[in-house]
Each structure stands twice: as C-alpha cells, then as structure tokens.
Amino acid sequence: MLGTLAGAIIAAAMPAAAPRQSEQPVFKAQSELVVMHVSVRDRRGRYVMGLGQDAFTVIDDGQAQTLAMFSADEVPASIAFLIDNSNSMRPNRERVIAAAIAFAANSHPRDEISVLTFNESVTSAFGPALIQDIPEGSLRTAMDRAIIARGMTALYDAVVAGLRRVSGGVHTRQVLILVSDGGDNASGTTMDAAIKQLRDSDATMYTVTLTDTLVREGNPGLMRQLARESGGEAFHPRNVEDIPEVFERIARDIRSAYTLAYAPAHHGEGEDRRRAVRVYVRSSDGRPLSVRAREGYMERHPEAEPR
Length: 307
Prior knowledge:
Blueprint: H1 6-12, E1 34-42, E2 56-60, E3 63-64, E4 67-71, E5 78-84, H2 93-105, E6 112-118, E7 122-130, H3 138-146, H4 155-167, E8 174-180, H5 191-200, E9 203-209, H6 220-230, E10 234-235, H7 243-255, E11 258-262, E12 273-281, E13 289-292, E14 296-299
Parallel strand pairs: 5-6, 5-8, 8-9, 9-10
Antiparallel strand pairs: 1-11, 1-13, 2-3, 2-12, 4-11, 6-7, 12-14
Helix pairs in contact: 2-7, 4-5
C-alpha cells in the first residue's frame, strides 16, 4: 500500500520516545515509496517467519520491482475498531468488549488504538491512544459506556469515519477492525462510495461478521468484500464463544506481517489511477505458501503547477 518516505517507515519499526505527528501518505514524488504489509502462511495456516528479502517478488503494473526496504520486524499500527452498536449486536455485546480488551493485551505496545461505535450515527468511544499509555481498565470502562446495542445501522458511514481516523494516526500503517452483521439501513454514504474510499486508502480491514440466524438482515458478502479489497481477512465465527479467538488471530496476523517497500516507475502526468500489485513468495524448501497482501493502490498525480 502507499506509504511515506523510507526513513519514516524504518523509524516506525524502531523504538521511539514519543509518537510522530500525523503523516498523510500521498504519492507525489519519485522519492516516495509504495509500502506493502504481507502475511505469509503455510498449508496448515501457520505463519511463516524468518524469510529473507530474496524470497519476495513484487509485480506492480506487470513490472517486477526492486525492493528499497524489507523488514521482518513488527511495525506498530494505528488501529480503529468499528463496532456495530445497533440492536442486532445486543446478544454479542459482552463477548465483543472482552475480546477487544484481550486484543489490546496481545498487540504491539506502541499500537495506537481507537474505538468508534455506530448505530444511526458514528460515535468516538475511545482514543486514539498508544496501548502502552492506556490506564488499566479505561478501555473496558469506555466500551461499557459506549456500546448500548440499540437503534439502526450506519455501517458505510462508519467505514468512512474509520478511514478518516486512521489516516490521521501517528503511524503510517493503518488497520480497521469492523465488527458487524454487514447490514446498513441508516448511512448517508452509499455502499459503492464506502468501498471506493477503502480501495483508495492505505488501510487494511479485518471484518468479524456476527449474525443472528433468526434475523436475516446482515450482509456477510459485503464483509468479505471489504476485507478482500483492502488486503485484510474476513472472519465469520459460528458461535459467540469463538469471538475471542478471532480477535486473537487478528492481533497475531497484524504482528506477523512482513513489510516491503519499493519505488515504482511513473507514467507521467495524467489522471489518478489504480495500479495492480501482486506479491509472490517462495520458500527455500519448496513448501507451498499462502500470501495475502493488498492487491493495488491509487497512483496520485499532482496538479500541474501554475505558470
């Protein structure tokens, strides 16, 4: 996905005494890099760690790229939970709160956490705050107060608000975790507009679909699409008891990713356009590997300077 200069990415992977100011990733100069976060697993679903740079091949618009930066270290992220706060989530309220607390405990201490809830409107329930700076019990207290599980559902509005939140975060890596049944009956934003903004952003979205078998108003297909479009992963736990395990898997996935960066060739001035990206990984012992990464990004062309 698009990122800022290599120095900013490398700095993000190193300990720092204080968070950086918000950086808006834009693609304007040849010195800027495209940054990809890549998850690699074996046939049993286990994360494959310890791979070197030579194991990765990146194809951007049909052209093989030379990596300018490679890291197998954890890179902290700005993470926003988008939690459905409508009537349909009432049976899952307690499990979702407990799982979110456990997620924070399993995350990088320098991850930046926000919680947005949504029913007819989108509300900021917590943060943003670095996990290492969050007072004990404050996240649970905030979520207990904010998640009331009533009203309708403005999911598309929540996606747009979440993108806005993480794009202004202290880290260049951006993650959204959407918890909902996928239905929407209250947004001012259209579904197509929300999907487009997600595709054009730098955020990776994980979706957790919680459905009531007696109420068929959700949209699991949309939840899968949102995850796929952003290079994330979709989860659909069968039982409410499985929610904590899902959140644990998301935390582990975020922390297990490789980070790659490269400077693609430009095609001159013109309209903004989407570039297709594919990442291939080979193992030294020939094991088949599963690779997940964002499948493209928006190439932004600066406006012509006035003469």
